[in-house]
């Protein structure tokens, strides 16, 4: 189910990180930014954010779901976890009354893979459950940016458009404000109680769905905890007696011990994203999270010593020959494949790979065991981690849609946001029993038809609170949630966390070149001094003015903390 967005790179790019995070929310059964007091008119000509009392007036009332009780409650910003066997006879009903009134609705959404035919049994069953006639206009997720821009620039916008946060560059935020409906009259305050499953979505995800001063998005909630995990081959570590490192220096020492090029074994793949976490670098996933008020001054991530230290440490791994050569060349293969084949012992990727790799290897290598090491601090002490965005993908409703169509779209979202352990969840995520999946010993297993049809569709409309559940591998679900909870204890929220901020258009591409520069530096193609020079240029070209803009935004709105 994971989108093929990482291509053949050695580690997660910013986009592949976000893509895997977002779709992981569907894969692990749950979920995976702008606030506008500075303006945010429907014309889309204003930029800024909406916070404080203004935002609170727009938020749906939060009413926790009591339909199902998780085995592991959410803690420290983690997902909730389910580890019990799944019995279809015990499934609860989350939508006792069909709310849809029969509207015909067209939804454009990114799709990774080959879309199924529109009249398939899964789509028919979902539409019947909801009481609407939804037609999916699936678009290639890899080139979604291009299609999205063209559609939003036209006068022919579908009833619903799904937009991942990594596709919100350039003019897309302005188009969101000008093209999509205000859902506040239907969802703000107690109005949301008509849709109990939407009311159970955490308030942070709704606040992040405010664009241009209006509640416009239906969110896929995401855990606030770091999503990138430093994975290791636990089966090999146990066999060799290797101890897990507890500092960057210990990691380097272990990497030297592990690496045996003649045996085609290297310690790791590209570890840049974990290095950012080891050294406490501000999030680079979305621009507002890269800013933080430090000692009374707003600082951007690339200006920090931690940023340079993380790059220098990663450069040492490459310079020492401790990283797989294909990761350095960035020409073939993937980090995950090199890990599975035993060519690297450590790699970093989205937390969804914890289950994904175990499931992938179950029939091929029964001794295979993946696990995630805890993130440590630069000095070997506790890490300083930064919270990610409270939502990663949004569905938007055409502002020209009628009241009846909007209400039917919300009826559909109320079904897709049903929690794990309900009949609605099972149909949304697994399809029709017997047609798309079977259950044996409490484990639902999709057949070929299920894998072809029950994918990338209704889960993109709205999701329940972040949830991790793997009926086939409950121990993995438990490990994932517990890892999130441990890391969540060291997680902080940066100044603009949870605020959907629309930067002035002139600054939207200001930081775009840094990711490529990072990759060049760690591989030895550029120097740390080149980064320092790039930061100086960034300041001159608008970085300092953007800082002033953020400072004014903060002075006006405060932080979301």
From TrEMBL:
Q: Which domain of life is it from?
A: Bacteria
InterPro entries the record matches: Bact_solute-bd_prot1, TAT_signal
Recorded hits in PROSITE patterns, A to Z, give: TAT (PS51318)
Q: Which family does it belong to?
A: Belongs to the bacterial solute-binding protein 1 family.
Which PANTHER family does the UniProt record give?
Answer: ARABINOSE-BINDING PROTEIN-RELATED, SN-GLYCEROL-3-PHOSPHATE-BINDING PERIPLASMIC PROTEIN UGPB
What is the protein name stated in its UniProt record? Putative aldouronate transport system substrate-binding protein
The protein's organism comes out as Streptomyces violarus
Species lineage? Bacteria, Bacillati, Actinomycetota, Actinomycetes, Kitasatosporales
